[in-house]
Predict the 3D structure of the following.
Amino acid sequence: GTAFVVQWDQVYLQGKEDLGSFTFQAALHSSGRIVFGYKEIPVPVLQISASQHPVKAGLSDAFMVLNPSPDVPESRRRTIYEYHRVELDPGSISSLAAVEFTPLPTCLQHQSCDSCVSSELPFNCSWCHVLQRY
């Protein structure tokens, strides 16, 4: 009840199956922490070709739009629009490594105007939870 974990077991790079398989996890904790655990990384991420698909490591906010394909009317083309990203250094990803993202404090953690305004947040907070306005 405190975390949701997804694991990818024995994932192979298409056309590069001889390099070995990847096994890794993403754990989303109820506290807001996100942990990536890398069990088996058979080849350095920096050596993975981006010719077929971009190679990214980290977190990103994005949304997807399905558009009709001009070539095949009954099919749809997926377009992903990324608008914010926190990147990991691909060189830090190796077998038996873990990376943790910890959320920064926000105004939403406070239940009253006074506690929000008087808090020691690293930014100027003026949101009032009670009144639901700034």
